Amino acid sequence: MELLVWFFLAQQQTNSRIICRLMATPIMVAVFSTGIGLVEAANKSRLGISQNGEMVDYLPCGTIPLSTRTAVLMGGGDDVKEAFSWMIGKMTQCGDGSIGRPGNFVVIDNGSDPPDDTYISIVGPVALVVTLVVPDIETANDPALEPYIRNAGAIWLTGGDQGRYYNFWKGSLLEQLISEQVRNFKIPIGGTSAGIMVLSEFAYVADPCAITSSKALTDPCSQCVAL
């Protein structure tokens, strides 16, 4: 896997987080489960869609996957536009060495903060930049998400409350679609802050409560140290 890590140090926050592997506690093994079907979920969906451009119904390279997987991990603070330009460059490459057509850059937000991602369309050639706001489990199971994810040439996950990613996306249709698109076509994927967290196999989810590094070190079995 090809990995580009962008370190961007923003102003230090008092509620700094830690990611660690500790002994299991009941909160660590809690699984979010729902019996909501896709039809019912669609009726209750609060999907927000904001787009700049027109979606194309193909990947930049058609059915030809990239040769290597690509990930961008960005710290909190202002977005690094060079990272998006790099992702767009990767997005237009094809596994056979040719250059594909401009594709769809899909930004996904968990509803924590209203994203402003309009600038992505000016840092590289894209057919569409679309932001999908997925604020709950019903929306994460909305079939209306499928055409956007199936045709995504690159996917970006915004920051915010990482507990929302875990509680609202785990085991959902959205999680399945993203995993399949990245696995099958090796499209570039990235995230910032909480968006990085959701990309990993093990993560600190800050649920049911948050904890600072100093407190976690003195009380590693606290219910707030939830992985």
Automatic annotation (TrEMBL):
It comes from the Bacteria. InterPro entries: Class_I_gatase-like (IPR029062), Peptidase_S51 (IPR005320). Coiled coil: none annotated. This is Peptidase S51-like protein. GO terms for molecular function: serine-type peptidase activity. SUPFAM superfamilies: Class I glutamine amidotransferase-like (SSF52317). Belongs to the peptidase S51 family. GO terms for biological process: proteolysis. Pfam families: Peptidase_S51. Keywords: Hydrolase, Protease, Serine protease.
